[in-house]
Amino acid sequence: MQFIPISYYLIFCSVLFCIGVIGVLIKRNALLILMSVELMINSINLLLAAFSTYLNDPAGQIFVFFIMVVAAAEVAIGLAIIVVIYRTTHSIDIDVLNKLKW
Amino acid sequence: MSTIISLSVLGVLILAEGLLGKKAWHLPTILIGLLVSLALTLSGWNLNLHYYNEMMIVDNSSVAFSSILIFTTFLIFMFAGHYYRGVQRPLDDIYAILIFALVGSVMMTSFGNLIMLFLGIETLSIALYVLAGSHKEAITSNEATLKYFLMGSFLSGFLLFGIALLYGASGSLNMDEISAYTVREAAHLSPMFKAGLFLLIIGLAFKIAIVPFHFWAPDVYEGTPTLLTAFMATVVKVASIVALFRLFSHCFPAIRETWETTLWILAVLTILVGNLTGLYQPNLKRMLAYSSISHSGYMMLAVLAFSARSADALLLYAAAYSVATVTAFGILILVRGAKGNDLFTSFEGLGRKNPVEAVCLTIALLSLTGIPPLAGFMAKYYLFATALEKGYLWLVILAVLGSAISVGYYFKPIISMYLKEGEGIKLEAGFAYKTHIVFLTVLTILLGLLPAFLINLL
Fold first, then answer.
1. What burial class does residue B280 get, using C-beta atoms within 10 Å of its C-beta: 0-12 exposed, 13-18 middle, 19+ buried?
2. Could you give the CA distance from residue B294 to residue B406 in angstroms, rounded to a whole number?
3. Which of B75, B106, B148 is nearest to B328 (CA)?
4. Burial level of B92, CB count in 10 A (0-12/13-18/19+)?
């Protein structure tokens, strides 16, 4: 059976991860930051699934399911926090929040 | 395992009580439940149980550290009745989430597989995001939770990427197999493994708040409701350090030279930056945040110099640090309740008006500084001794220098309380509250006089 070499997956997932990191660092909108974090986590899921197939070991794919569950919980909490922030400040721009010293 | 089950049941029980509207039952149930869980944890001593294909390994070190975490949570809950006394809203959610966070921290002390490490960290973190924002009306609380959440989920990504790379290189998520891999490949470690290791260090360093990944901590600590800050500064901090210690002492002892320098630099930076920045803080809560940062630097010494003795030293240090910090937060809650803020000027005249509280705060701060014969001194002594044994002379010199700098800020509230004339305030502490604070202070003194009780345990 013909496999796509593992290095391709590695490079692709690293690039996706870096796009996510850059998104978190340059975006000022809390929702877009949340989406960038999701991109990071999904690139990791893809990488774990690729490794799992490559190594013939199911543990990696099991881990992907755990990560999906945790990510879903995290998004639910994150959206709730953003809603609370919007109610008090009428904005979801993170620069509005400067009451505490950074 | 029985600890995790009993604590989870306790959390659900609190939620059920909330559903029935039995608000007065919460605290008694929690305190009894925590004691039961503590007894169940201690019953696992010397049994060395493995669960679910090595997912969880309950050995003596995990029993000891879990017990400290549960006991600290118990001490914090003793303040909860006073802290939330005027609050009208139901409290079952806050209490239950606090218990669930404790479950996460227990998982972090007894994982045997990187999946469990990740799940423990996330169980703890997701619960903390909610707790940090639990004062919904206060904009500072909102800000704290958003900062914590965004930074936390961002850095969890690094942690996960690190785990994925370790998995790809070593072919397993099991700690024993990773350890076997590092022994086998110690001479020619793949770059992927090294990259994974460093990403993992970054992710964990953020959770512990190690410099340079500490910048969220003072803001989040300040914005979070004070009772929950006490939980963050003690239980969360100890659990994360223990997770780092467990990971490195089980998985990576064979490849010491790859990570030794990194952790060395991180520890020195944490101790120096934490203490120096602590000098410039205007209030006690931020000061305690920097104090907790610098103490995580000292605890890194145990990770660097691991041996059976350093596990003992870390245990004593975690106990001494937790008890003293909880005491300081107990007084902080009283002062904030009476004055509305915790600037150092608010402590003026406290020594004469409230001698008991002032003495307790003084002893707690002296213990954190490391003045003999208190618990903090003995803990630092054993920790530095184990580090010296492994030849970390410069690290210990810098750590002692850091302790000397820390005198500068730990003495600020003490000077305000005793030497400055102020109008003074009457702190409204009930009898039970006072007794609890005195009990904590006695515990600090006892741990200092009888460290042998904890030091030869592991």
1. exposed
2. 9
3. B75
4. buried
CA distances to B146, B191, B224, B226, B269 from A81, rounded to whole Å, are 7, 39, 14, 19, 33
Instruction: Kindly state the tokens that stand for B353.
Output: 């008006």
Taking the CA atoms of residue A77, residue A83, residue A85 and residue A91 in that order, the dihedral angle to the nearest 10 degrees is 130
Q: What is the mean pLDDT of residues B332-339?
A: 89
Bridge partners for A93 per DSSP:
A29
CB B34 within 8 Å of CB B41: no
CA distances B383 to B207, B229, B258, B315, Å, are 22, 26, 23, 10
Q: Six-digit token pair at B134?
A: 């639990």
Q: Tokens 């970054």 sit at which residue?
A: B202
CA distance B275 to B295: 9
Reduced to 3 states (helix: H, G, I; strand: E, B; else coil), residue B253 is helix
Instruction: Identify the pLDDT of residue B457.
Output: 77
Contact B350, B420 (CB under 8 A): no
How far is Cα B240 from Cα B227, in angstroms, rounded to an integer?
Answer: 19
Whether the per-residue pLDDT at B87 is higher than 90: the answer is no
Distance (Å, whole) CA B404 – CA B410 = 10
pTM across the whole model: 0.95
Interface residues on A facing B, Cβ-Cβ cutoff 8 A: 6, 10, 17, 20-21, 24, 30, 33-34, 37, 40-41, 43-44, 47-48, 51, 54-55, 57, 59-60, 62-63, 66-67, 70, 73-74, 77-78, 81-82, 84-85, 88-89, 94, 97, 99-102
Mean pLDDT calculated for residue range A6-24: 94
Residue A58: cis peptide before it, omega within 30 degrees of 0:
no
**Over the stretch A61-73, which tens digit does the pLDDT of each residue have?**
999 999 999 999 9
pLDDT reading at A102 higher than 80: no
Task: Please give the biggest Cα pair distance in chain B.
Answer: 69
Per-residue HEC secondary structure of B390-403 comes to CCCHHHHHHHHHHH
* Structural domain count, chain B: 1
Coil, strand or helix at B224: coil
| DSSP assignments along B409-440, one per residue | HHHHHHHHHHHS----------HHHHHHHHHH
DSSP assignment, residue A68?
H
B49-51 and B56-58 beta bridge pairing = antiparallel
The token pair that represents B308 in the structure block: 């059976």
Domain that holds residue B391: 2-455
Three-class SS of B30-44: HHHHHHHHHHHHHCC
Q: How far apart are the C-alpha atoms of B259 and B251, rounded to whole Å?
A: 12
B126 vs A40, A73, A84: nearest CB? A73
Contact B375, B367 (CB under 8 A): yes
Average predicted confidence (pLDDT) for chain B: 92
Which residues, in sequence order, are CB contacts of B22 under 8 Å at separation 6+?
Answer: none
The residue of B135, B150, B221 whose CB has the most chain A CBs within 10 angstroms, and thus the best one to mutate to test that interface, is: B150
Region B309-337 average pLDDT: 93
* Structure-token match 């044994």, residue found: B389
